[in-house]
Every structure is written in structure tokens, then in C-alpha cells.
Amino acid sequence: MSVTKRSHVLVAIAAACLSFAAGAARAEDGVLRVGIITDMSGQYSDGNGPGSVIAAQMAAEEIGGTVAGRKIEIISADHQNKPDVATGIVRNWIDNKGVDVIAEGVNSAVALAIQTVTRERKKLFLISGSGSSDLTGKQCSPTSVQWTYDTYASSNATAKAVVARGGTPWFFLTADYAFGQALERDASKAVTSAGGKVLGAVRHPFDTADFSSFLLQAQSSGAKILALANAGSDFRNAVSQADEFNIRASMQLVALQVTLTDVPALGLAHAHDLLFTDSFYWDRTPETRAFAQEFFKRHGAMPTAYQAGVNSALRHYFKAVAATNSVDSETVIAQMRKTPVNDFFAENGLVREDGRMVHDMYLMRIKKPEESKSKWDLYEYLATVPGDQAFRPLDEGGCPYVAKSH
């Protein structure tokens, strides 16, 4: 080896050692670091974003700001809905900033990319805003927990309820990325298993402004149900433009995913009577109202399911750290799995070995304008779907870590 090449190798080794030493030093500095990676500026920022950071801060305060002798520090970043940006941030957090746990991760394509990094680095990833059921399926991780919902649960109860009321055949308007594709796939299976039919689908790009051509294709399909497999501004634009084209004259709109903050932005005049399934509603119980009122004082809006999920997931994580006196990912997640989740978000929730937190889901209807008494009085609770009926069975997801353990 030449002197020049040898010097380059030595420099690289020295840099790697310094980076490792810096990470190790930060890991032993008496601080537990939580990284909230979310959409701070894009179409999901209202339902996630700064509110998710506030939810995390509340969870830290609820346990007293310290756990297992470590001061809790919350840091955050905007992934801009770009997987490469997200993975760069997370690698830097883990390798150089001493971050112990990553949370949130809204946008399924982003979450799948982050999960690859946290799997490699053996760090915990508590997923709240991302819904693709692939996160606990073939792309699962032994150090991740998908907390709030997934595309299987969101579509399963809604599809079965609509088909039971005679709602068929179906046509899908689908966001063309991981989340939308998974939502369409899971809902299609639920429709057909319930005895309904699917006539087709049309896919639209992320962040679409003009849905006219897609809506006309749906209208000409002959389907009676138009299922919206999208979220954020895509969902809002699709619903409002569907009314412009008088789609409801021949088709029933079904929302496969609704975020609370979408509804005031869209308006009840457009959103009314949409059926959907969610994991949390702020006005459902005394416990949800107590959390929501404290959150509202800080954020000026009621919490979405994703923001509530961030708080609940971190509460459970902090309790596991306290119980084990450890921040080792494998130790903590083992404790999280064997401890039921009982808080304002879930009753007797269970963290499975595929990373799915199983809990009840709720069938909801968006109220008519005349039924709503205030800005955030938006949903009517219809029914509870037990967790073991809402979420995909453990043996059907294809998670390789589950297969190895049985």
C-alpha cells in the first residue's frame, strides 16, 4: 500500500473511532435523547408536525422529566416527506448525537426508510403517523413498534361496515406511494372477503391539486362506492372536488383514512357523513378529554390520533426504561411487549413481536354542520372494533422475525 493510501486509511479509521467515541460519550452523559422526526412544513404538518413534538414533551413531563437517572431531552427535525432526507437525519442522530429512540415518522415511504436504518443500528423506532401495514409485515423490525393505526385496521372495519350496508361495487382513488398502495390493497381484501366487489382503481401523484381526470374515471367506472385511499391535502382536495363534480349523486364516498385536522380545513359541508375507522378521538372518554384539554392549552388545536399516539408510545417506553433501568433497545422493547398498555389511548393494548401495538379501533361518522356544536365537535362514535378483529392476525403478515421465533 502506498504512503498516500495508507494515510487515507488511517484518517478514515481515526474519524470512525472519533465518531464512535463521541456517540459512546453522549450515550453515557446522563441524558436520554428522543428524536421526533416528522413533517413540519408539508401537507401532514397540521396533523403531526409541531403537535407531535408537544405530545412528546408532555410525555416527558408526565414522568417528571427524568427516567432511570437520565434527563429526558426531546429533539426534532423536518424530514420534508423525503426518505433520503429522513435517513440522513436519523443516521446523524444515532451516530453523532446519542439519540436513544426515534418517534413519529409520518409518511409511510419515509417510515420504511427510517426503519431500515433503525433496524441496522438496533435502535427503537416508535411509529405513530405512518400507516403502511408493511411496517409490521415483510419489512418488520425487531426494534420497531407501529403504535397508532395501520392500513389494514383502518380499511378492515370500514370496508366491512359499508359492504354490510349494501355498499358495493367499489372503485379506489389512491395516492401513488407506499401508504396509499397499502391502503388500497388491504381495503380490497376486506371488501372481497365481506362479499363485495372491486371494479378498479386510479392512482394519483403525491400532493395533487387537480383531481378532475381521476374523479371522472371513477365516475365512469359504474361503481357505487368511491374509496379515498389518500390523506392530508390530497384527501381534502379529492373530497371537495368530488362535490364540484356532483360525484355523490351516483357514488358514496368512503374515507379510508381521516385526520382530525382535515375536517375543519375541509368543512363539514363537504366532509359530512363520511364513514371511517380511527384509533383515537379527543371527545370519546373522560381520559381522552383530559389529555386533549391539556394539549389544546399548548397547541391551540385538539390532538389528532397521531399526536396522541406519540404521547402514548413514549409514555409506555419511559415506563419500560424505568422498570428495566436500561436504555438498551432489546431490553426495553422486551419490557414493552410484556407490559399491557393502559392509558387514555388504549385499554389493555398489546405490543406484539411483529411490532404491532394491538388495541381497539372505532368506527366513526363525520357530523353534519347542524349537528356540530363547536369547531372540534366533529365525529359521531358508532362502534368499537376489538383489536383482535381490527388488526391483521400475527401469522398473516409475513414478518420474518416472527417466523424465526416459532
TrEMBL record:
Organism: Bradyrhizobium pachyrhizi
Name assigned to this protein: ABC transporter substrate-binding protein
Keyword tags: Amino-acid transport, Signal, Transport
Top-level taxon of origin: Bacteria
Leucine-binding protein domain location: 32-367
PANTHER family xrefs: LEUCINE-SPECIFIC-BINDING PROTEIN, PERIPLASMIC BINDING PROTEIN OF ABC TRANSPORTER FOR NATURAL AMINO ACIDS
Gene3D superfamilies: 3.40.50.2300
Transmembrane annotation, as ranges: none
Keyword Ribonucleoprotein in annotation: no
Residues spanning the signal sequence: 1-27
GO biological process assignments: amino acid transport
Classification via InterPro entries: BCAA_transport (IPR051010), Leu-bd (IPR028081), Peripla_BP_I (IPR028082)
The family this protein is said to belong to: Belongs to the leucine-binding protein family.
Pfam family, one: Peripla_BP_6
